[in-house]
């Protein structure tokens, strides 16, 4: 499971609970994932004892992980040695720095090993690894991706080998006798290991800095290597730490009152997570986690327009205004000619994989982008933003106006927000109503005629109350075509978007029914819908529980909102990352960790909670 994230909007590195890198993305967060495996090990020369830190039974002891600012740190403590590791990504160079500090009560010789198995461009062959002995560096490359490792002090030995193919285990085996003796070049599915002969010392200990430079050519990574050596290796750690400390000091919003220290920590960390998961080109990564690959056959390493729209709103709330602006510009570049948005995109702006049939559409995603553009303008109060985004907004609103079911007047059938069912859905309908009204407001700001969009919004709203409210059962149904009356937490999101006013009795009855039917009696938290089996039976989700929290706040129950916020904060991992969902049987995180949508919804609800605490009515979206 992911325990840490460090990055600079181009290079993104995740680490696991054992302090190992488990994903290396470049040149976009989420694309491409170049790493298969990494390990860090230590050999006690006097005792002739070797251990990888991943080994729970190893003499180095249990690992501890802590994310502080934008630096990942781990520590292992044993009876004779203390090993600490921290990872830093430089803000303006594609340079990862791993700082290893080795301490002992009395001086003793040790050997540190770093193992790396890459799958450059996400394939496990046609790679090359070689040691450049005169330059004291080790390079992995394929096509336009180069990764160069060097260190201070320089490594004592290096070895290149192979893994996976031909039945080979990997070069890490060469390290386990405490001495590397392998080749200096390998190809196909190569891996590598580096060895440092050091003296563990008391007090501050002995420091080893391992650098990984990323680039599109060997000359590019070489320039970074020489820049580090000329400038002094410690300088780049200082610069990274100074930048992120300054960023946190100047950009982190004030902590909202009325919440526990834990909730405030998760809130602050959520702001950093969103910063790290936004690419330089504006793509917002849903999650850097690749673990769902085994369960569902794909990853969450894509940009979804619904997730991105809600994340961009939260970034606006948290002061990351330029990140939200970049996302909307990215959306404008990716919009289809008819004004809609394809299911999901790779972070580089190419279409992602899909399990939808043509037209590959979830109509609420197109609506969410329009609503996000209005929210962005409202928070920044800059009409120039609307002028720049107007072609996208106009095309999307015209598409939403015409994408109608002739029988009901509702939006035509598309996939639901859970991406599972084709039909006419209540939440999707509410999203379209909301978006067309926001598009009309944008038109008014620019002196343009809002009439057609406002009329369409009004017509669809009337049709929604006519077709999606069941007067016999006194409830909103989940969807039409086919009819589905199961309780669904997305009805809470439909209320948030104004399907009916919060003062309408239908709002309170909807909230009460959803909470009654979908609340997890074993773990707490709210499931998505009746009968959900995704990663477990009716697992509670973070976003759905937060939708309930905002619903309670809107209905006047501020204390219940606070309780639900605290429930979510309590389900964050030890390193303050929020999962997609929680196992309904064990309470453990399930599916993707972290999920950007979970973190953004946490930020959004906390801001509304804070607004209500000073006597203000929380702003709408």
Give an overview in words:
The structure is a single chain. With 621 residues, this protein is of the alpha+beta class. It has 2 domains: 2-244, Beta-galactosidase, Chain A, domain 5; 252-613, Glycosyltransferase. It is 36% helix and 24% strand. A 9-stranded antiparallel β-sheet has the order 7-8-9-10-18-14-13-12-16. Strand 23 (469-470) and strand 24 (475-476) form a beta hairpin. Helix 6 packs antiparallel against helix 7 (321-334), helix 6 packs parallel to helix 8 and helix 15 (558-570) packs antiparallel against helix 16. The model is unreliable at 56-69 (pLDDT under 50).
N-end to C-end Cα span: 33 Å
- The helix content, as a percent range, equals 25-40%
Number of separate helices: 16
Q: Main sheet?
A: 9 strands, antiparallel
Poorly predicted sequence stretches spanning 5 or more consecutive residues: 56-69
CATH architecture of the largest domain: Alpha/alpha barrel
How is the largest sheet built, in terms of strand order?
Answer: 7-8-9-10-18-14-13-12-16
When the domains are counted, the total is 2
Q: Quick one: CATH class of the largest domain?
A: Mainly Alpha
Shape: elongated
Provide the structure class: alpha+beta
Strand-residue proportion: 15-25%
């Amino acid at each position: 499971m992911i325990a840490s994230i460090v990055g600079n909007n181009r290079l993104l590195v995740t680490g696991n609970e054992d302090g190992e890198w488990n994903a290396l993305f470049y040149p976009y967060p989420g694309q491409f994932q170049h790493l298969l495996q990494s390990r860090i090990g230590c050999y006690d020369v006097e005792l002739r004892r070797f251990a990888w830190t991943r080994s729970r039974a190893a003499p180095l002891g249990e690992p501890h992980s802590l994310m502080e600012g934008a630096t990942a740190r781990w520590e292992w403590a044993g009876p004779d040695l203390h090993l600490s590791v921290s990872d830093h990504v430089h803000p303006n160079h594609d340079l990862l720095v791993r700082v290893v500090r080795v301490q002992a009560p009395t001086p003793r010789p040790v050997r540190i090993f770093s193992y790396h198995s890459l799958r450059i461009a996400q394939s496990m062959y046609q790679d090359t690894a070689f040691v450049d002995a005169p330059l004291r560096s080790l390079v992995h490359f394929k096509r336009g991706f180069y990764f160069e490792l060097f260190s201070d002090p320089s490594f004592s030995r290096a070895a290149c080998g192979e893994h996976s193919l031909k039945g080979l285990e990997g070069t890490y085996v060469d390290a386990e006798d405490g001495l590397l003796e392998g080749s200096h070049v390998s190809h196909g599915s190569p891996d590598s290991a580096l060895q440092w002969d050091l003296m563990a010392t008391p007090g501050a200990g002995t420091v080893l800095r391992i650098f990984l430079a990323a680039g599109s050519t060997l000359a590019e990574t070489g320039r970074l290597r020489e820049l580090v050596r000329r400038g002094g290796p410690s300088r780049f750690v200082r610069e990274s730490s100074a930048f992120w400390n300054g960023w946190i000091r100047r950009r982190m919003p004030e902590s909202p009152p009325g919440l526990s220290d834990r909730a405030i920590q998760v809130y602050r960390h959520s702001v950093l997570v969103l910063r790290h998961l936004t690419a330089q080109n504006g793509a917002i990564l849903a999650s850097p986690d690749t673990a769902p690959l085994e369960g569902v056959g794909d990853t969450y390493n894509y940009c979804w327009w619904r997730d991105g729209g809600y994340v961009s709103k939260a970034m606006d709330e948290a002061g990351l205004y330029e990140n939200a602006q970049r996302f909307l510009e990215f959306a404008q570049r990716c919009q289809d000619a008819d004004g809609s948005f394809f299911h999901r995109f790779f972070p580089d702006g190419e279409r992602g994989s899909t399990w939808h049939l043509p037209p590959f559409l979830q109509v609420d995603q197109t609506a969410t982008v329009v609503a996000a553009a209005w929210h962005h303008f409202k928070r920044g109060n800059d009409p120039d933003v609307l002028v720049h985004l107007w072609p996208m907004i106009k095309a999307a609103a015209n598409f939403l106006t015409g994408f109608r079911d002739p029988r009901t007047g509702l939006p035509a059938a598309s996939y639901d927000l859970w991406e599972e069912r084709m039909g006419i859905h209540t939440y999707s309908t509410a999203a379209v109503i909301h978006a067309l009204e926001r598009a009309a407001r944008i038109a008014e700001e620019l002196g343009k005629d809002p009439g057609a969009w406002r009329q369409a919004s009004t017509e669809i709203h009337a049709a929604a109350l006519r077709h999606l409210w069941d007067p016999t059962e006194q409830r909103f149904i989940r969807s039409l075509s086919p009819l589905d009356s199961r309780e669904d937490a997305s009805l809470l999101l439909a209320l948030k978007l104004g399907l009916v006013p919060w003062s309408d009795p239908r709002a309170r009855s909807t909230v009460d029914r959803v909470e009654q039917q979908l609340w997890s009696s074993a773990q707490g938290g709210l499931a998505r819908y009746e009968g959900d089996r995704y990663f477990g039976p009716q697992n509670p989700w973070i976003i759905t529980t937060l939708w309930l929290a905002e619903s309670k706040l809107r209905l006047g129950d501020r204390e219940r909102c606070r309780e639900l916020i605290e429930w979510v904060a309590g389900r964050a991992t030890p390193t303050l990352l929020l999962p997609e969902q929680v196992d309904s049987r064990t309470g453990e995180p399930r599916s993707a960790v972290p999920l950007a949508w979970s973190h953004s919804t946490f930020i959004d609800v906390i801001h509304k909670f804070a607004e209500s605490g000073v006597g203000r009515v929380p702003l709408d979206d």
